[in-house]
Amino acid sequence: MRRLPTCGSRITNHLSRVLYMIPILRLVPVLLVGAMLAPSLVQAQQPAPRDTLRLDAAVQRALDDNRQARIARRETDIAENDVSLGNAGFLPTLSGQANYSQTRSNSEQVFLSGETQSTDGATSTQSGAGADLRWTVFDGLRPFATYDRLGAERDRQAAATDEQVETLVADVIEGYYDVARQQQQLEVLQEAVAISRERLRIAELRRELGSASDLEVRQVRVDLNADSTEALRQAAALTNAKNQLNRLLARPEDASTRYAVASAIEVDTSLQYASTQQTALQESPALTQAREALRVAQAEQRELRADFFPTVDLTAGLNYSQLNAESGFVQENTSTEVTYGVSLTLDLFDGLNRWRRTQNADIRTTNARLAVEDVRARLVTELTNAYERYRNRLRLVDLGRQTLKAVRANVDVALEQFEQGTITSVELREVQEQFVQAESRLLTVQFEAKQAEVELLRLSGQLLDRY
């Protein structure tokens, strides 16, 4: 994309050739000055060495370090942990208990025989421990429906995480190529500044030699100041774009922006609507979430239908107790008990709440089915619009390249005419501005074409596979 350096060299060469039309004796001081300034000009145009950030490295860093991506992955881990036999209700429950108590009593007893017995401060202790096991062996097949629901919720959360991660990757790719666009735009404007600076130098030399006026020099200086202003604005825009990319990559707030990115915006021109739509209907995270939400609603229906069936529980228990007393008829008592049995429970009437919950579950299932259809229709619409924008931007890229080629030809013609003296420096400036504008428009439509490509891949669920 860096075509301006070549064009700038041609402009400089042609402008220098204009000076050769001046008598040699009058040109000697000019050549001496140019010889002294040439090394400093070359050194000033050399860019400072910078590290290059690759796109794959940027995407990987975002996936590893971005806080939102890390949160989303942990939400998926939570949903995965919830899918278990115990959480679904397949396994029995076992509970244990222990107790200890102490009693101090004062008593006075009178027997039928007339004898009396009194006790002061008698202490009795009682301790015990036990364990109870309960296992629901039938409750309308609720555990199977619960397990299906937990699995559907896990898959829905996984699809939501994929969608969030793909959105992050799309933002990183767009941010990366936005930096590339701003970087190339800065190079274009810097070349424009270099050309204007060279024009000013030649105009001043020509004025000293008497072949240019003060008005021409002032006009060239105005052009140079305008180009320098645009370059400074573009440098600030490039820094802002890099800061946005640093935020997506979870870099520290004081992270450096002294790095470069790819020197060209490469756009995949091979995407086809039919294959992209087919993949989207199968892999789209948004559509997958809607389908899994329907599975959740259907599983909830089966869970609530289990309320109409009886519950059969198997129970078993083991209890141990010990009593030590200083008064009463029993001084010490130790017992061990084992209990087991089966129980059946059936709710005969609960205020018709079971019917109400079942009807609501049916409504939620119908809504979930409608949501799947709505998401599918919206996905097709968004995919169609994105593909049309993609094709449109590709055509604009081709048109922009043709325009740039024509403008470059105009530059060559204008340089020849300027050399021959048939056009002025102002007219040459107009051609130079057209070249810069054409280059800028091409950069913009290339970036928009890349955005459209990324959006197509995101909607169809292919973005993570591509990058």
TrEMBL record:
Coiled coil: 179-206
Compartment list: Cell outer membrane
Keyword field: Cell outer membrane, Coiled coil, Membrane, Transmembrane, Transmembrane beta strand, Transport
Transmembrane annotation, as ranges: none
GO MF annotations, alphabetized: efflux transmembrane transporter activity; porin activity
InterPro entries registered for this protein in UniProt: OMP_efflux (IPR003423), TolC-like (IPR051906)
Gene Ontology cellular component annotations, sorted alphabetically: cell outer membrane; efflux pump complex
UniProt keyword Transmembrane, yes or no: yes
Classification via SUPFAM superfamilies: Outer membrane efflux proteins (OEP)
Keyword Transport attached: yes
Family, per entry: Belongs to the outer membrane factor (OMF) (TC 1.B.17) family.
Name of this chain's protein: Outer membrane protein TolC
Organism this protein belongs to: Salinibacter ruber (strain DSM 13855 / M31)
Lineage: Bacteria, Pseudomonadati, Rhodothermota, Rhodothermia, Rhodothermales
